[in-house]
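Q: Hi! First time doing this. I have a protein sequence and I read that you can turn it into a structure. Is that right? Here it is:
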Amino acid sequence: MVIETLPIITNIWTDIQSLSPQAKERLGYPTQKPVALLERILKASSNEGDVVLDAYCGCGTSLAVSQRLNRKWIGIDITYQSVSLILKRLEDAFGKGAIENITLNGIPKDMASAQALALKQDDRTRKEFEKWVVLTYSNNRAVIQQKKGKDQGIDGIAYFRSEKDDPEKIIFQVKSGKVNSGDIRDLRGTMERESAVLGIFITLNKPTKDMTKEAKEAGIYKSQYMNVPVDKIRIVTVQEMIEDQKRLDILLSLEVLKSAEKQMEVRQGQLDFE
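A: Yes, that's right. Below is the predicted 3D structure, encoded as structure tokens:
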């Protein structure tokens, strides 16, 4: 018989270290907590099948641990960038089935709710519309432009594999107001300045014929890593994103977070994300 002596855990947990910048589980989120910490908390305070509520879920460590420990969960956060990070984290760890079983509330699901978010008077709230557009269209793989200067014209950036040694750049631009062909010319200038080979122009309003013509005149991009040539400038409407589920169909090489090892087969069941 083997008798193992387990350490006595006090109310001061100094045995779990904070995450270092080089930690494998690090996602780049400023207030990220160690998985070991949330594991201890959830094992001590809940059982399998219980519901865990995290009202400020951030990058979703509590949600990912709840998923692995077979707890149901509800997560709440104010910014869609956190939501996107969590969705990608869960997909990487547990597979696409985990995403299919999540209920998302508080994000645009039709044109009326998209317009309501886009036309908010508060700048911070309106910025959430841009984040939602870029991250949703890129399947949570683009990087949001955090500081938008007066003449930057960039709301998101992504990179894809190319025939060069370094990845090529895609820039995203989102417009919620009136649009015209001058917007596409401005985007072409931004692409040239930023050395981006592709530009995605996403608009809440319907593009004009002149805009479509201007975009076509930018030419096409060919690569051995793409099945077919693609337009250098692509115009996408929010309506197409919502009603036709239109998404970016280019395999990206750099993502919004690092890939995680798949931890378990997804258990069936309804999960809520408020």
